[in-house]
Each structure stands twice: as structure tokens, then as C-alpha cells.
Amino acid sequence: MNWQPELNELRQREALAQAMGGPDKVHRQHEGGRLTVRERISQLVDTGSFHEVGAIAGKAKYDSEGKLKDFTPSNCVMGRAMLEGRPVVVVGDDFTVRGGSADATIREKPIMAERMAADLRLPIIRIIEGSGGGGSVKTIETTGRANLPGGVGGTWLYHHTCDNLSRVPVVALGLGSVAGLGAARLAASHYSVMTKGTSAMFVAGPPVVKRLGQDLSKQELGGWEIQTRSGAIDHAVDTEEEAFAAARRFLSYLPASVEELAERCDCTDDPARVDEALLSAIPRNLRTPYRIRPIIESVVDRGSFFEIGRQFGRPIVTGLARLRGLPVAVMAGDPHFYAGSWTADTCAKVVRFVDLAETFHLPVVYLMDCPGFMIGLDAERTATIRWGVRAMAAVNQSTVPWCTVIIRNAFGVAGVVHQPAGRFSVRYAWPSARWGSLPLEGGIEAAYRADLDAAPDREAKMAEIDRRLQQLRSPLRTAEAFWVEEIIDPRQTRRLLCEFGDRAEKLRQPGISRFTMRP
Q1: CA 47 to the chain's CA centroid
Q2: Buried b vs exposed e over 463-487: b needs ≥16 C-beta within 10 Å?
Q3: How many CB atoms neighbour CB 268 within 10 A?
Q4: Which whole-number Å values give the CA distances from 514 to 19, 398, 402, in the listed order?
Q5: Which fold has domain 276-433+484-507?
Q6: Residue 389, SS3?
Q7: What CA–CA distance (Å, rounded) separates 197 from 219?
């Protein structure tokens, strides 16, 4: 006598779990342009590498003889897999089973996934659709009681959802309507992605919001344009396949956990490569903007720049890149938005990005063009100065190697936030750089009002003062006093950044940083 009967029942239960919510629900998922959770995992990870944990957890029905009659699996699928040859944890919502809500949830499964990632020190990818195991009003009827949010033991999921941000890379993919706890799990990540046509995210969906007198569709309330521009979501793509590709690429720049360092990959791009276009990249006309992304692409390894949060805080561009194969965090001013002035949103973006670099020990490269904080009534209403000093604190508290290249503007309090205070960092300036307490434009009239009022020709006097001050503002004059260390030929920027990367590689220290990333 052997144990084959039990193994046969195990195979039966596994087959029922593979069927998820049944053919009708699977068909409905496909009709909505969405893959099932198992199809998603299969396309995301390396072929055949997914090792599922808890597949047969769920609710079973038995006949009068105690034999299995029917089985409804939990709406959470989780386990370990390989991604580009590296181990990861994957946890996904099965929307075909009660729409991913609490009625079909076994709370321990997503908690186990988060704990597995933390304790095995593995990146975790959350595939989220529905409430992500969150509440449903039907729960009161099915359980016979109301749940206290968190409750005894319930806080563990919330704890791990945010605590893992300080331990392992967390990627969240919103691939359908995501609400409540699901929205929190999507936002509490290092990198989040939505699909444009089939996903939406909100604290509460349209039926609930309608009670407030706001009759909105899912896309109007929480579609990708709303969420990427608000900064709640980092990126939006057209298809789920693109979301999987974005997740894979993001993780390729990071270590498995904070206890390790991001690995340097092979690089065939010449570190001394010279791009003649950099010599004329910054226009002499101060009112003329320029395209910052080609400049970034020129100085990092070809094709390595991976932008994060493009639609939010747009006066600053942030992303990951490589210098001679070494992963680095890149920030750069974008004069196409408020001339590069930092808004409250921009400052929030800087805080989050610097915290990401600090958490995973990534050296920072900052291509600076910041004429100061945004001014005006909107700037005051959004507490720009408070967000600005938060950004200053984040930069000053960082410990990772830092290199700044001032390519145009560095003015005011925001201009101070271009390198960490109190420790050494590498700094260069292009000949196009200019700096001061405030830009001359707009400041001359206030500072020289008496001279201008007494002049027979006010405009001519203004032009005379401007010419005189422009000569004094030359970065070469500043270099005389050693207030800026090096003025460089822009075409040498890549070589110098690669040298910085070589030095920075030896200075990185693994471990949990004092200041880690928060959502």
C-alpha cells in the first residue's frame, strides 16, 4: 500500500486551482483585454521557473462521504521564480475569483509572500487587480461581523507592504481596476506601472465616489493620466507585456536586497567617447530651452537610461543608467517645464528618488539646471519652500557617492540643493553654467532702482548694468576663488563621469541605510 490515492487527490485539487474562477470568469477576463494571473506570471518570469506556494489553499466542498466535491482557490497566487536568471518572489491577485476581494482571500498568503521576500532577501513583484485582498461589504455577511482595519494580526500585511521598501526592491503592476488595499500596495513600491487601456487606481471606485456628487468613469477618476501626473504611479504602458518588460528592466539596475550591491555589467561603450554635439547643446540665449534627454543619453552608456516618473514633477528628470556598466541614479533639470524651476511636486520627486538611490546604494549623477524654486501664488499655496527644504534634507542625509555637473542654472535656495552638505562630493561646471543668489533677470530692477529712476534712458541704463553684471557672473570668475572646482569642456563629461563611477564603485557599502525609501 502506498500514498498514491492522496497524490491523486492532490493532483485533482491542483487542477481545480489552475482553473481559477472557472471558464466563464476566465473568458470575461480575456474579453476585457486582460490576462489571468497565471498567464501574467508565466509571461513575466523565466519559462518554467515559477514554483508556486499554497496552490491548493482555498475553500472546498465535500459530499456526504467526505469526498472532495468542489474547490474554489484563494484569489492570491504566490511563489518564487527566476527573472532574467535572478530569483524573485511573485504575488498576484486572481480577479476571476470574487474580483480579488476579501471574500476569497486567505490573508496569510500575501503576508507570506512579503515575508519571504524580506527574509530571503529577494525582490518582490506584486501583480495587483481588484482590492488586492482588501475589504468588501459582503464580508460582513459572509463572516457575520465587521472587520476592524488591521485588527489582531491584520497589521502584518500593512507592515510588510511598507517595511519591504527598506529591504528589497518592490515592483507593483496595476493591471486592472485597483482600489483600497490594492491601491495602497500598488503605491507602496519602488516602481509602479499601470496599463493605459485596462487599468485604473483609486482609494474608492466610481460607485462610492458618486455619493459625493462626482459621477465619473473609472478612467476619469483614476486612469493612468491622473495617476502618473499626480505621482502616485511611475509609469504607464499600452500592454501588459510592456509592463512585464518594464519590471524586468527596472530590477536589472538593482541588487537583490539592501544587503548586496548592484552588479556591474559588461560594457562595450567607450568611456572616453566624445560627443561634439555637447559643445553646442546649451543655447547662449538664456530664454531658449534645450532637450535634456539627449544630453543624458550622450554621457551615460548608450541605451542605458531608464526614466522613472516622467509625467510628474517635470522640471526634473529622474532615472537609472549605467556608467561603464555600473548602475547609477541620474537626475537632470528640464528647462521645458517652468524653465527648470522646482515646484512642490518636483521637490517631492527629488526626495523619493534620492531615497531610492540611498536605499540601494546607487551613486548619484546630477546634471543641474535649476533657476530656483517656482514663485507665485500657486507656489505658496502648495508649500513649495517646505517641500524644498525636505528635498534639501534628503540630499544632505544621503551617504552615497555624488557627482554634480552644473550645465546651466544654479540659483537661490534650490541652487543649494545640488550636492550633499558636510561631506565631499565631485562637482564640475560647463562654461554655460551661471549661478547666484537669484537670476539677474528681474533682480536688476529691484537692486538698482535708484540708478534706474535717475537715468535719462531707463532701458539703456538697464542694459548697461546687465552687461556689466553678466561679465562678472562668468563661471571662470568664480573658479578664480575656487568656489567651483573645475570648469570642463562639455565633451569630456562622459569620461569624467565614468571616472567618478569607477571611484564610487569602491565606496558603496551594503546594508540598511538610516534613511530609506518611503512610499
Answers
A1: 27
A2: eebeeeeeeeeebeebeeeeebeeb
A3: 7
A4: 46, 9, 17
A5: 2-enoyl-CoA Hydratase; Chain A, domain 1 (3.90.226)
A6: helix
A7: 9
Nearest to 90 by CA among 25, 45, 23: 45
What ranges in 98-216 are assigned the alpha helix state H?
Answer: 108-120, 138-143, 151-163, 181-187, 206-209
Span 232-246, pLDDT tens digits = 999 999 999 999 999
DSSP single-letter state for residue 214: -
Please report where in the chains the cell 530609506 appears, as a residue: 516
The C-alpha atoms of residue 247 and residue 29 are separated, in whole angstroms, by 22
pLDDT at 480 over 70: yes
DSSP state of 468: H
Q: Which residue has the cell 567607450?
A: 270
| Rounded Cα distance, 158 and 162, in Å | 7
Q: Which CATH number fits domain 4-250: 3.30.70.260, 3.40.50.12780, 3.40.910.10, 3.90.226.10?
A: 3.90.226.10
CB 71 within 8 A of CB 106: no
Question: Please, which pLDDT band fits residue 160 given cuts at 50, 70 and 90?
Answer: confident
Q: What pLDDT digit, counting tens, does each position of 250-259 carry?
A: 999 999 999 9
Beta strand residue intervals within 51-204, DSSP E: 51-53, 58-62, 68-73, 76-83, 86-93, 124-130, 170-179, 191-195, 200-202
List every span in the chain annotated with CATH 3.90.226.10: 4-250, 276-433+484-507
**pLDDT at residue number 481:** 81
Judge whether 118 and 168 are in contact, CB under 8 Å: yes
- Mean pLDDT of all residues in 463-492: 84
Type of residue at 286: L
Instruction: Tell me what the mean pLDDT of segment 71-85 comes to.
Output: 94
pTM of the entire predicted model: 0.92
Interatomic CA distance for residues 406 and 400, integer angstroms: 19
319 or 455: which leads in pLDDT: 319
Q: Collapsing DSSP states into helix, strand and coil, what is residue 101?
A: coil
Q: What is the mean pLDDT of residues 346-358?
A: 97
Q: Mind giving me the DSSP string for 208-225?
A: HHGGGT----HHHHH-HH
Q: How far is CA 77 from CA 74, 201, 479, in A?
A: 8, 21, 60
Q: What Å distances lie between residue 109 and 215, 281, 329, 486, CA to CA? A: 36, 53, 34, 55
Q: Which three cell numbers stand for residue 209?
A: 465616489
Nine-digit cell at 325?
Answer: 556598466
Q: pLDDT tier at 348 (50, 70, 90 boundaries)?
A: very high
Classify residue 311 by its DSSP letter. Answer: T
pLDDT for 145: 67
